Amino acid sequence: MKRMTVVFLAFLFVFAGFAFSKTYIVGTSADFPPFEYVQNGRYVGFDMDLIQAIGKVEGFQVEIRDMSFDSLIPALKSGIIDIAIAGMTITPDRLQVVDFSDPYWSADQDVIVKKNSDYNLAVLFGNNKVGVQTGTTGDLWVSDNLIKTGILKHIVRYESFIYALQALINGEVNAVVLDSPVAQRFAQTQPVSIVGVIITNENYGIAVNKGNKTLLDMINDGLAKVKASGQLSQLVDKYFGK
Asked: What's the rounded Cα separation, in Å, for the pair 89 and 202?
């Protein structure tokens, strides 16, 4: 009887630990394959698997909420979400308002055009129309380096990279500037081609509200464990190929 009681109490302890584990609201912008996208009604991708893996080793649950990319930092600041993971580049401006985890990915920016078009890197000059996703590094780079300098006349901003991609395919813009891993994915699956790389040496991080050191330390600890266990390498193989 005592043995059964001990086993039963142990079961209750484990069950209670699972049932009452903390759930964090994780914001993403699920239009950024292979990092985050919707498949069969589920949020999937490299980032989604990564934050789930971190939650597992740190003992917390995650609830994913999809929103526009430029809404993520305001949502963190207002407490609507606890964590943001969306292929988000660590920048000095963003570091003023949120805190970032250790980097987990590096990227540059690619220029894509409609497949079999005659465009090359000269598409970034003159009266051509270049599409970007609002608030992204591509948006900031084109704005600062091309629009403000007068090199390019027209920038067209879209809430989602999917809308920008569709506009390119439909001939509404001449090119789109976006993160290299996603551009490479689109070039494999859509009628577009990469015509140039803009070296920006970006690092992606997981964002939390400014000053939330407890959560940030937990994420960094979990990220280190996921790296050390080989899970991160497995995710790279899964979504980007060996």
From this structure: 6
Provide the β-strand partners of residue 196: 111
Q: Which residues contact 19 (CB under 8 A, 6 or more apart)?
A: none
Give the chain's end-to-end CA distance (angstroms, integer): 54
* pLDDT tens sequence across 179-204: 999 999 899 999 999 999 999 999 99
153 vs 174: CA distance, rounded Å: 12
Cis, bond preceding 34 (omega within 30 deg of 0) = yes
Residue 234 in tokens: 């497995």
Residues 141 and 199: beta-carbon distance below 8 Å = no
Between CA 182 and CA 54 the distance in angstroms is 23
Are 84 and 28 spatial neighbours (Cβ–Cβ below 8 Å)? Answer: yes
The SS3 call for residue 21 is: coil
pLDDT in tens, 125-168: 999 999 999 999 999 999 999 999 999 999 999 999 999 999 99
Task: Tell the residue number behind the tokens 């302890």, with chain if given.
Answer: 13
Query: What pLDDT, on the 0 to 100 scale, is given for residue 11?
Result: 44
- Tell me the whole-structure pTM to 2 decimals: 0.84
**pLDDT > 50? residue 38:** yes
Give the whole-angstrom CA distance, residue 208 versus residue 77: 9
**Alpha carbon distance 26, 30 (integer Å):** 12
Domains located in the chain, CATH noted? 2-104+205-240 (3.40.190.10), 107-202 (3.40.190.10)
β-partners of residue 25 are: 63
